[in-house]
Amino acid sequence: MKKTIPIATFGIARPRDMTTPLGEVSMWGRQTVTSGRWDKLRVFGRYAVVYLIDGGGYYEDGNGLTQSIEPGDLILVFPELPHRYGPEAGKVWHEYYVVFEGPGFDLWRKQGLLDTARPVWHLEPVHQWLARLEAVLGASEHHGRADVATMLREVGRLQLWLADALACVSTQAGYDDQAAWVRRAIALIESSLPHEVDWDELSTTLGIGREVFRKRFTRWAGLSPGRYRATRLVQRAATLMQQGGLTDKQVAAELGYCDEFHFSRRFKQIMGVSPRAFRRRLPTP
User: What is the pTM of this model?
Assistant: First the structure.
């Protein structure tokens, strides 16, 4: 049977009731794994990424895939896909793992960006990809406890890391052009914030019509351009509220909302709570 031995004290698990409307990162850390093969395939029930730092071994899943694993390989664990992986008998490997779940990642799955037919990616150089993956959660303290705004940033950083990883391996799956396109579209939207986006002008910049842009962006990003912009504005609002010093009316004006009521309504649509309820959850100075 598989045994795990931590190689560092770094390993954090959050309570399962800590969540955000977009999802959450619930566990992460480093460990050394020493084992023979698991007796049978298992179902984990959540998403995870397992990045192999050193050593080697195997991966098998319920789709019939059997593959050797080497340093630089990233294993994508899907909630319902039976699988097993690890070093061969008498061997050891070192890994970094992140466990996550939520509707934000389900959208990636729905759009085919996370695909059970392709559960192993290869990312090199190892030290660079590992450092970036560790940085996704590196700012979290207090044994994994965090406020909603911090957890939303973690989800965003993990999605950005996955997007970059997908772009890195894209030539193997034919994703390279589309990954580059959606990253450029996102950069154009981000550069316009907090101002209104001229969608016709943005579409023209990308060389396509507005409706084609909307459909392509939605297919590859997992949400519509308008929804993406609204979500990013609310995330900025959450950051401003966490920093303190601004009323809801001032935050609304700072981010270009027509009035405080419109801001409050949009904030609750995306965050699931009103600005007032969100502020009550923030730690007191």
Answer: 0.58
